[in-house]
Amino acid sequence: MPAGVVLATGRTRVWVEHGALHWRRGRTTVTVPGSQIRQVKVAEQSLAVGLVEEAQADTALTVRHGNTAVVAALGAEIEAIMSDARVAGSGQSIRRQSVRVWPLQALTGLRGRVRNGSPWWRRAMWYTLLGLPLAVWLPVEPGLLGPLAWLMLPPGIALLRLWVGMAELDTRWVMWRRGIRVRARFESDTDSEASSAYIVHFRSLEGQKITARGQVRGRRDEIRYDPQEPSHVLAPTRIAWLGIALAAFLATGAWGVAFCLPALIWLIRLLELPF
């Protein structure tokens, strides 16, 4: 069924979707399949929906809305799902669902992310629970240095990590440890906007033909590839890569160092304390 009318008034919202009437009042939503609706009464600005006795005896859902056209259109949509249910013979039951208040809902979602999500959520939790008290309570002068360092350290680390990714430092480290150098055939990557991008074809040690993409091509017809991930390739180059690494550092790495400086100063002054 195409998108239909949504009747909204106060804390009540009523709409029809997937062959069922959805009636939300506050935090509680009642989903009524068309087979469980006994009758629909539309009287100018009033809409009343009666349910079958087997579903819930002598129960009617009523709402008033200032626009009579909206009320009439929603009433027609409800009658349509009633007709469809009689033809299909659906026996679905009424469902009620209540959502928690916002603070409890946010805490539940946060708990799920910490327990089952990325490890960075758990690290952030420990950083908050342990780092903030230490930054506030340890007697490091000036007193605001600790909270300032605690606030600025995460974005500083994030910016430095971004610089590492932009400069391909992590990729170059992997290639230096386990990369295999092979001869390759290069061609321009017409799908990329970067003029230095390329498509490389080579054969792995196992004899498998590999096609991969890269960003900066060296002067030699050689590449290094990761035997564990053959699609990860790196062309041996120096000057071009150093220029990219320097530009990335000026854009993000320098800011990362600046954001981490308060934490470094705080740590030095903490080690100077006479414990």
Protein model, in words:
With 275 residues, the protein is of the alpha+beta class. The protein has 7 helices and 14 strands. The chain has helices at residues 53-56, 68-88, 102-116, 119-137, 145-166, 169-178, 239-271; strands at 6-9, 12-17, 20-25, 28-33, 37-43, 46-51, 60-64, 95-98, 180-183, 185-188, 198-203, 209-214, 222-226, 229-234. The chain has a 5-stranded antiparallel β-sheet, covered by helices on one side. Strands 5-6-7 form a 3-stranded antiparallel β-sheet. Strands 9-13-14 form a 3-stranded antiparallel β-sheet, covered by helices on one side. α3 crosses α4 (119-137) and α4 packs antiparallel against α5 (145-166). It starts with 5 loop residues before the first strand and ends with a helix. The mean pLDDT is 82.
Beta-strand content bin: 25-35%
In whole angstroms, the N-to-C terminal distance is: 72 Å
Rg calculated over all Cα atoms: 32 Å
Helices and strands, in order, run as EEEEEEHEHEHHHHEEEEEEH
What's the shape? flat
Helix segment count?
A: 7
Number of strands: 14
Structural class: alpha+beta
Strand line-up of the largest beta sheet: 1-2-3-4-8
Mean pLDDT across all residues, rounded? 82
Which blocks of ≥5 consecutive residues have pLDDT under 50? Answer: none
- How is the biggest beta sheet arranged? 5 strands, antiparallel
Helix share, percent: 40-55%
